[in-house]
Predict the structure.
Amino acid sequence: MIKVSGKPINVDNLNTYFSDNSIQLKIANTLSSSNETYTYSSLEQLLFELNLRASTVNSALKLSRSNMDFASFRKSRCNPDFWNRNDDGSFSLKDGVKPSEAIRDIFNQGRKYGTECATAMVIVFYGAILDIYKDELFDKTYPKITLNGWDDLDKNLGLRDYEEISDVLPGDCKYIKNPDVSPLTPEWQGENVLYIGNNLYFGHGIGNKTEAEMIKLLNLRRKSGSTESAYMTNPNIHQDFKYLEKKMN
Amino acid sequence: MNDNAYVNEFNNLWATHGINEYENYFDKLYGNDLERALFLINHENLDFGALFFLKSKINEYNLYNSMSERNKITLSLINEFTGGFRSSINFNNMTISFIENVHLALKWMFNTGAKHDGLSNELDEVLDKTAILLIKIFKDKSILKDLIDLIFKRYEKGFFIQDLVWAFFESRDIDSLILIASRLKSDNKKDIEFVCNFLDLAPSININNKAQLDKNYMILINWIYENHLFLYYCSENLKHVGSKLPYRVALDAKYIGKKVDVDTGKIKEKISNYEFNLLSQFNRLNVKEKTILSNYSYRLNRANIYAWNNWLTYPISEQLRIAYLGGMS
């Protein structure tokens, strides 16, 4: 159920804001038919979440097409015009470079970059927020960016684990664990994946696949004689939409 | 110069003079005195780094068959680690003693290689995989202390630590968390910073405030001590926002005072019908209530087992009320 200012709303009323086949409407329908109650203090807050979720999906699709390579931290690479590569394989924004341009460069010149799946997810989230905030607010909110998997996260990204919520919505990041990964390829111990709708997930290094296909591919990276399959875990990460919406106002 | 001194000097040659000079030195030695060259490479006191940077020369001069068993195994492992090639070891003739020799070779690689960590990205990558194999395949926890030292040294230099951290946690050795926690008392601020990040301590900790650090050290040690029988491993935490420690407390087990399997979180011992009924009610509670009850249960059990047994006979709502009165929140 969706409640705005304490009152349930009819998703049909959102048709004035989004087209029939839009991802925003599909998300709204899922929220509305859920057993969970999703509460918003205003319609603008709800619209913000729907739009940011849609942007997150688009950001993932763009990164998927960017030709950015999969690389472990040890072998990561980045465009030195915008980023410094640190000794631990992370990337830090170069001095004097606009954060918005640096993030945009990853999507536009992906072949100059190589990193692992967690960092790719963080890039997706930054790309999504850039689409909504636009350059000026983005640069002001995130003046110094370090891309280092789930470490060194800017708290203004508002990323949090919503494990207690069972619905999986477009824009949610999940984790597929590969418990029997080959010890020689620890980078395949799991895959961070973003749900993009229609039962598909984006995973950097794997592409856009269903959960079963992702698991099948991870299972190819297990040690010899393994009998334990990879599996989707409970944690569910997405932005704190209400927090991010406040920053726009 | 006696043999040991000669080997020690040879061990450090690549690090002090560079790899090119080291290889040139070996070329001359090979040309003038092959026997001496082989004696050096196969010596039991040779360090892993010294062998690692001669692998191309060993290949060039076709010396593989003149290598010791340790060196043959090590060279095959390096090929697999760095090139992804299947090992050239003949596994059809694998015996128990061979498996033991692989284990010994890996230990030698780690123990003698770690001292030169940070001087070569290629060598460091092999060290990481060596640590992973020792822990995951051979369940060898004897390297944990040195592994922790290596992690802290690399963190201080800003080098890559993810694979070593993963290897450490994959050991599922809860007691060694105390070795990490003890670095809160270190004089090195980078050590303290690492512990605060690594063990996901409160972000408000001021690493310059010794009293606060000492207090957090005690809190941490007490937490590990209190929960070590009930902790289980869940590695997805490592890959997730907001939580680095890949262990969770099995609250149900803590509530009835039973040890869990560190791999699954399942209670190890058989439970009685009485305990089963207790858990059925316990599992209907929310996470906050479960945490309060399990913490109170543990502490009451330690303080007075008779009172604990009596408390467990009360309805669960009454147990909760008493727990709140007992200061649990």
About this structure: The first strand of chain B starts at residue 231 and ends at 233.
